[in-house]
Design goal:
- The structure holds two protein chains of two kinds.
- Chain A has 19 helices and 20 strands.
- Chain A is α/β, with parallel strands linked by helices.
- Chain A folds into three domains: 215 residues, FAD/NAD(P)-binding domain; 113 residues, no CATH class; 129 residues, no CATH class.
- By secondary structure, chain B is an alpha/beta fold.
- Chain B folds into three domains: 104 residues, Elongation Factor Tu (Ef-tu), domain 3; 104 residues, Nucleotide-binding domain of ferredoxin-NADP reductase (FNR) module (Rossmann fold, 3-Layer(aba) Sandwich), CATH 3.40.50; 87 residues, Roll (Ubiquitin-like (UB roll)).
- Chain B contains eleven helices and 19 strands.
- A six-stranded antiparallel sheet of chain B has the order 4-3-6-1-2-5. In chain B, strands 10-9-8-7-11-12 form a six-stranded parallel sheet, covered by helices on one side.
- Chain B is globular and about 95 Å long.
- Classes of the chains: A alpha/beta, B alpha/beta.
- The interface between A and B is large, with 91 and 73 residues.
């Protein structure tokens, strides 16, 4: 069969969801994935007696049966929620900045969060309450914008969501300052910044506030069998709906004619006829390699964008329980400073990047590893292409050096001893991410959420960004930016848009 | 709605800024460089030599090491960056079968990185190695996939002092490690206890004898021969203790029998910090023979092949000439990850599948024997 209504290139989080939406819309759909597994970053791997989660720290906006988050609502609609066993993450986070004497553990639940903040920072209550009020309105406004496919009447927005519109052009810190939030409360509240990968002087407030709101009010979830369980559940659903999904099959070219997309050429030269492609990969790759005759406008627009963080993760299987090791929390943010712009600068270079977001999986799921053992994973981002300067002959040494820096940082900040209890270790560098997911420079966060290219302008410009008939994007580079929930939403949006295009014959 | 946000003196100024979001982004996008987009990135280039798919390789030299072991040197089409101790998969179409086998790399990491030269130590032990011994000649074309594997020195978990126990062609990963130490790619001290039946069975003795003694100490252990300058007997706890430093990492590569013996000795070792061993590929199963029908889906193609119950599904597919992915042939690497549609099966050794693979019915054909007719969905070979 060499003809499909739609082809999805890449079986990452966005591509898999998009495929289900296409199939639900009645389109005959093919998914091609370059790797032999689905999920992109959403996978797991085994070493010895441990099964490591490859990337998911905690799934935002999922919630529970009684308090559904938007991702759960989406998964219900896709028909996959019940294929997966879910766990709830016990608490929001612990943020430690030793040099600034900051060490705070924050809970989930809006009131609990406000109360805890008041304990750490007396007098912060009002500003945090206002933060949540703004965030609630932003969330409602975003739901409206999503539903309208980005085509919104500004007068309607101003009338119904004035706070959304008024905060919509400001950075996190600009708004928090306007709320007169005490510095220490700001520092604690900004701990999640590394999940979005832009510093709080540049990061759009609405983007950050809606993420924090979703974490704090809906909690965070985790599939028991790691994110691989979600990815396989999505594949299962694609096959149930009659979709085809081919692994180890790379798409080399997207063919176009005067009417837009006309087909896809696979690595072995095979040509698939289709009028609709959803690319779950970087526009840099699509416009740089996969399309011929790219317009100057698309080249300039793609060149203008800035890559966000390049990933590095270390996975440890430890031969002691977390109680024995003294690891008390599930989710740690360890920074050098809460001046996020300064921290961002430090994260540009391999030698100065000591920031980490670290998870002890056993604190959410004690049975995730054999009794008396612990699974931990540590992640950081590089805010420049410094790994591009690593010579191949130095690669393994640099990789081990960074892993050592991460262990030492954790030990110093928490007082735990990890080094003597490591049974299994695995390290993923930007090279690893570049290999498995094909992203340029090993980027794991898509395009950076800079002020001009943040969530709001991207959502408002979905129609303008659709420059080639039949070609839309899903995943971390697209309109919802990066992160698991965002990638799933991007697949939902772009899948439904493509169904609409197909039905209208556009 | 309670709180009303205001940043500027007048609320309308905040609105105006919002209205500028779209024109502002349009402006930025229109001001991007006109230069063609990059077609390559440095990180991705390094990734490409670390994680190589299938590549063509030409046999450039064959060296007889012992009666039953030869060193095959290949010229790669692409440079390769591997960690000493890893293996590659050698692949060739022989008759109607597409044969893949994992072989340890004996050459140094910088040799394949800078000179695209890779040496595999191959012992005459079965179908593919028989073919190589009898037919392979300089100039022949092969395909190589890899590197793969996790049997290497890990500076964060392993001790600076390593005792390496090798048996027969199990010397291969340690040869690469020794060379990597010499060229500065690895930083540890290795005491190599190398077991063979007789002196004439020692592989690469010329290379081993040339290694700098301050970094790598080589001790030959002969089981069936007593000779001056050689230890005699099995590699036992007693012998290891004789050479053991205060605290060390023990690495083992050798036959299953030797491994079993060594496992029994572990508790008698003094100063052992951690132990790691290389897993061997899965072979035949000893059961009453039966032949089943195996239906294989690869993309939109469907094949029916015969599957013998004493061979793995992977071998049956290869015999039928199907191009399917494989690497470790021990259930660990996941290259052959396939979806089970129907049928009963047994897994050789421990089940190394991911939890969700078990739940959703995925298998690794390289360690799976059929117990009935089966139907599976397999990715195409890369």
């Amino acid at each position: 069969m060499n003809q499909y209504d739609a082809v999805v290139i890449g079986a990452g989080n966005g591509g898999l969801v998009a495929a289900i939406r296409l199939l639900q819309g009645g389109l005959k759909t093919l998914v091609v994935e370059k790797h032999n597994l689905p999920g992109g970053f959403a996978t797991s791997f085994r070493r010895g007696r441990f099964e490591f989660e490859a990337s998911l720290h905690e799934l935002n906006d999922f919630g529970t049966e009684d308090n559904k988050g938007d991702v759960r609502v989406l998964f219900d609609e896709l028909g996959v929620t019940d294929k997966i066993e879910w766990l709830q993450i016990p608490e929001a986070y612990r943020v430690i900045v030793k040099s600034e004497n900051l060490d705070a553990v924050m809970p989930f639940g809006k009131q609990a969060f406000i109360d805890q903040m008041e304990k750490y920072v007396p007098g912060s209550k009002k500003s945090i309450q206002h933060f949540f009020e703004l965030a609630e309105e932003i969330r409602t406004a975003q739901a409206y914008t999503n539903k309208a496919g980005g085509k919104v009447e500004s007068s309607y927005m101003v009338k119904n969501f004035p706070n959304y519109v008024k905060t919509g052009s400001y950075s996190v810190n600009e708004v928090l300052d306007a709320l007169k939030m005490p510095k220490k409360a700001k520092d604690i509240l900004n701990a999640y910044w590394c999940y979005l990968g832009a510093d709080c002087d540049t990061l759009s407030f609405t983007h950050y506030a809606s993420m924090v709101l979703r974490y704090i009010t809906k909690g965070a979830a985790m599939p028991k069998m790691r994110s691989h369980e979600i990815s396989l559940a999505l594949v299962e659903r694609i096959r149930e709906l009659g979709g085809d999904i081919w692994f180890n099959v790379a798409a080399e070219k997207i063919l176009t004619d005067k009417n837009g997309v006309s087909g896809v050429v696979l690595a072995d030269g095979r040509e698939i006829k289709t009028k609709y492609v959803i690319a779950n990969c970087a526009p840099h790759l699509v416009f740089g390699k996969m399309l011929d005759n790219v317009s100057l406008k698309d080249i300039k627009a793609t060149n203008a964008r800035k890559f966000a963080g390049r990933g590095f993760s270390m996975f440890l299987g430890l031969n002691k329980s977390c109680d024995e090791l003294g690891i008390t929390n599930h989710n740690y943010f360890l920074y050098d400073t809460m001046d996020t712009a300064k921290q961002y600068e430090l994260m540009k270079k391999i030698d100065t990047n000591y920031a980490q977001a670290t998870v002890c999986l056993n604190r959410a799921y004690p049975e995730c590893s054999p009794k008396g053992t612990t699974i931990m994973y540590f992640t950081t981002l590089y805010m420049s292409d410094d790994w591009g300067n690593v010579k191949p002959e130095d690669y393994f040494k640099v990789k081990d050096k960074v892993a050592k820096m991460m262990i030492e940082r954790f030990e110093k900040d928490t007082g735990c001893n990890l080094r003597d209890h490591i049974e299994e270790i695995s390290i993923a560098t930007p090279m690893t991410y570049a290999h498995y997911c094909g992203h340029p420079e090993g980027v794991i966060y898509g395009y950076e959420s800079q002020y001009w290219d943040g969530l709001n302008p991207r959502l408002l410009m979905m129609a303008q960004d659709h420059t080639i008939r039949g070609l839309r994007f899903a995943g971390g580079y697209s309109m919802r930016l990066s992160g698991y929930s965002s990638a799933y939403f991007s697949g939902d949006i772009t899948g439904r848009q493509t169904v609409g295009d197909f039905k209208r014959g556009e | 709605m309670g709180y009303k946000f205001k940043k500027q003196i007048f609320g309308w100024m905040d609105l105006l800024r919002f209205k500028k979001l779209v024109p502002n982004r349009e402006k930025h996008l229109s001001e991007g460089s006109e230069k063609p987009l990059p077609t390559s990135y440095k990180v991705n280039e390094v990734a490409a030599i670390l994680h190589l798919g299938l590549q063509k390789a030409t046999l450039t030299a064959i060296k007889e090491e012992t009666k039953d072991t030869k060193a095959y040197t290949f010229e790669l089409s692409l440079p390769m960056l591997f960690r000493a101790g890893q293996y590659v998969t050698l692949r060739k179409k022989i008759g109607d079968s597409l044969v893949n086998r994992p072989y340890g790399v004996a050459s140094s990491p910088l040799e394949s990185l800078h000179n695209k030269s890779l040496t595999l130590m191959i012992k005459k032990a079965g179908f593919f190695s028989d073919y190589l011994f009898d037919n392979a000649k300089v100039g022949d074309e092969f395909e190589i996939v890899g590197p793969s594997g996790f049997f290497y020195y890990e500076p964060l978990t392993d001790r600076k002092e390593v005792i390496a126990v090798a048996g027969g062609s199990g010397i291969t990963p340690f040869l690469a490690m020794a060379k990597a130490i010499v060229e500065g790619q690895e930083d540890f001290h290795m005491t190599l206890l190398y077991g063979a039946n007789k002196e004439e069975e020692i592989i690469a003795k010329d290379e081993l004898d040339k290694l700098p003694q301050d970094k790598i100490k080589v001790v030959y252990v002969l089981a069936n021969e007593e000779k001056k300058g050689y230890e005699h007997g099995f590699i036992s706890a007693e012998l290891i203790n004789k050479y053991a430093p205060e605290s060390y990492t023990l690495m083992f590569c050798g036959s299953d029998g030797m491994g079993k013996f060594l496992n029994g000795e572990l508790k008698k070792l003094k100063g052992l910090h951690n132990f790691k061993s290389e897993k061997n590929a899965v072979g035949m199963r000893d059961v009453k023979p039966a032949t089943y029908k195996l239906t294989v889906h690869i993309n939109d193609q469907v094949y029916e092949v015969k599957a013998s119950n004493n061979e793995t599904l992977l071998v049956s597919m290869e015999r039928a000439g199907l191009s399917v992915p494989s690497s470790c042939r021990a259930g660990g690497c996941g290259f052959c990850h396939s979806k089970l549609v129907s049928g009963k099966f047994s897994i050789a050794g421990a089940d190394k599948r991911r939890l969700a693979d078990v739940k959703f019915g995925y298998i690794h054909p390289c360690v799976t024997y059929p117990d009935s007719d089966m139907e599976i969905i397999v990715p195409q070979a890369k």
